[in-house]
Amino acid sequence: MPKKYYELTPDERLASLNLDEQAVQAWQDNQSATNAQIVENYISDFRVPMGVLKDIIVADRHVTVPMATEEPSVIAAANHGAKLLNQGGGVAVSLPERTALIGQLLFSGVAYDELAAFVARQQAAFFTVAQEAKPSIYRRGGGLLSVTARAVSATSVSVDFTIDTRDAMGANIVNTILEAEQALFADFQAQFVGAILSNYATAQCVTVTGRVPIASIGGRTVAKRLVQLNQFGHQDVYRATTENKGLFNGIGAVTLATGNDWRAVEAAGHAFASQNGRYQSLTTWTIAGDFLEGRLTMPISVGTVGGAISAMPQAQRALAIVAPQTADELRGIILAVGLAQNLAALKAIADGGIQKGHMKMHYRALALQVGARDDEIATLVTQLQAAEQVDAAVATNLLREMRK
Ligand code: NDP
């Protein structure tokens, strides 16, 4: 019997794709036996550039932060933003006393009062079941914190389990506990719809704040314009979307580099940005005396163990650069990078336009695009910077001239 596709080896799958020899070789050069175990139908690794934010002060500690991103200007901008925030003393972090993930048991066609009364009566049993389902998380100091019924509509109810998953992101821990708790709801089996963690991690909302001397960002006019730009992010969804995208340039790059689930972090961030019924910027910038002050609050579910972190050695190596003692420390660091990234983007727009800062990195990407070799890139970038108009045709011509 022929093998099913998922049973093929990576090389057999590559052979099935009708690629030329060079492409097959290139993919083969990037294969990893470990990663082949992580996803189905693996063919090769897809490499993304990783750089570092060299120094950002977070909660009084100087930290170097790895960032994995395909976008050319992100890491340079993060370093610039961090430098500015460091001049104001760095980023302060404020966390809930216990960060936790929420899991949902969902019921439809049920009276809220009836289910809520049941949940109130079963409290002791919920805690016993959680401990039996995942004793190891209790040994680590985590576990179930609360169980509440929440009306979602006239006939649908979510029973929310708030669970401290310590240094793990916790999706599997929460789902394991939820599935065990489900058995207690035998009387509501007909109304039961499903059990799953929520990525809207409101029990782990973290706030980071920082300030920059106004003199360091180009003076009061730039500072005022920066604040006005940020206000647009609170009033206009078009601006808010772009501002939050810029924020996630930083947050996503650190989340990815540290082996965390960036989709979970982004989904929670965007949901939180809509908490007032209108999608808004996640950051707020104000002027206070001689300082520009910034604040970012959002839920962030990340871990320092488990999931892809335990599976991927590169994630462990990246985490070792940050060396967080706990997942809570990592939460603060990731959001601090987000604040720095946001500051750099706003400053660039407020102070002469985003393209000025972007261009050098963009030119490097353009040089690669038109086929410049590693030893030709610097010269071509210099020539592009001097050119009056730049596009792919101009870059191609300059490269051709250089090679004559
Ligand atoms: P894991 O189950 O892989 O890892 C958690 C385990 O790590 C714990 O159960 C614990 O096992 C061990 N551990 C070791 N040290 C610690 C510590 N200090 N604190 C806590 N746990 C520790 O991962 P998660 O439960 O974190 O799940 C994350 C993964 O789930 C991610 O890959 C994510 O992409 C995925 N996922 C995400 C979903 C979503 O976001 N909607 C849905 C489903 C999965 P022990 O105590 O036994 O040693």
From TrEMBL:
Pfam families: HMG-CoA_red. GO terms for molecular function: hydroxymethylglutaryl-CoA reductase (NADPH) activity. PROSITE patterns: HMG_COA_REDUCTASE_4. One of its GO terms (biological process) is coenzyme A metabolic process. SUPFAM superfamilies: NAD-binding domain of HMG-CoA reductase, Substrate-binding domain of HMG-CoA reductase. Belongs to the HMG-CoA reductase family. This is Hydroxymethylglutaryl-CoA reductase.
